[in-house]
Amino acid sequence: MSELHESDSALLDPPGSAVKSVEAPKRRTAMETPMPPANSPSMWKRGINWPIAGWIGLVHVIALFAPFYFSWQGFVAFVVLSLATGSLGVCMGYHRLLTHGSFKTFKPVRWLLAFLGGLSGEGSAISWVANHRKHHAYSDKEGDPHSPRDGKWWSHMFWFIPQLGNEWHKELLDRYAPDLMKDRVMLWLHWLFLPSHIACGAVLFAIGYFGTAIGLGGAWNGWSMVVWGLGVRMVYVFHVTWFVNSATHLWGYRNYETSDDSKNLWWVGLLAFGEGWHNNHHAYQRVAAQGHKWWEFDMTYWVILAMEKVGLVWDVVRVKDIPRGAKPA
């Protein structure tokens, strides 16, 4: 049997900071030096992180070709890969497992979920988890990477565009994702982020180009698979994830009193695989289920329950497992 992975729950959320037990570095670092206010002119004067800005721009440009390369095969690739990379990779893997330790699983399953999350295009597991743990530590306060209080578009997609420097980024990873930094496979996935997307695009093109036996074939079909299975799919997963950062801190209703602006927003809940019930999540950050009312649809939690039934995951955290419950709104 594969070696089991026990998440370090001491690194994972409340009460208090999401990384409350992580010892601060003793030496003065770039991250300890005061940064310009978020979305301020002085922040933008630091320059643009062109690799990230170029990556996001390239993916959106590829998606613009969608009307010219529509095929049902490409649409199927879009749906299947959206579920695989969005629901399984980002929501289940990056968020509920690696960031918050909402359940436990075998190491190969953990690595597979991290690989699928990487194919979402939202960065490696290490970077994603570090930023999200910092978000919970400072939610809608100074230090939150993406609060709408600093601007709606900032929280949606501009917060990762300014150039903060390599030393600052390394300190972010060391401080907020030390458990993942010790995992050699996670480090490999971190460095293979771009090659994995090139390989994914090549596989999609090959399926379309050589797939005559399944009704495909030719360069046009190859590009259809790339445009829909890579470009359109990544743009969709990008924005439904980013709506959790922006829209669910702006609009919706609250089931619980929290110290931030988190809200439950039905359409983000539906589009983002169950992640839109954000007030529930901020009230009970380690709980695997983000939909707490019968009408709050959470497809990712259903998959977790199915995996629990067959023994792929265990120790699924439920509301009843949290000793100090949140106060109803």
TrEMBL record:
One of its GO terms (biological process) is fatty acid biosynthetic process. InterPro entries: Acyl-CoA_DS (IPR015876), FA_desaturase_dom (IPR005804). Keywords: Fatty acid biosynthesis, Fatty acid metabolism, Iron, Lipid biosynthesis, Lipid metabolism, Membrane, Oxidoreductase, Transmembrane, Transmembrane helix. Residues 72-303 form the Fatty acid desaturase domain. It comes from Pirellulimonas nuda. Residues 1-38 are annotated as: Disordered. It is a multi-pass membrane protein. GO terms for cellular component: membrane. Belongs to the fatty acid desaturase type 2 family. The chain crosses the membrane at residues 52-70, 76-97, 109-130, 188-210, 222-244. GO terms for molecular function: oxidoreductase activity, acting on paired donors, with oxidation of a pair of donors resulting in the reduction of molecular oxygen to two molecules of water. It holds the Pfam family FA_desaturase. This is Fatty acid desaturase. It is found in: Membrane.
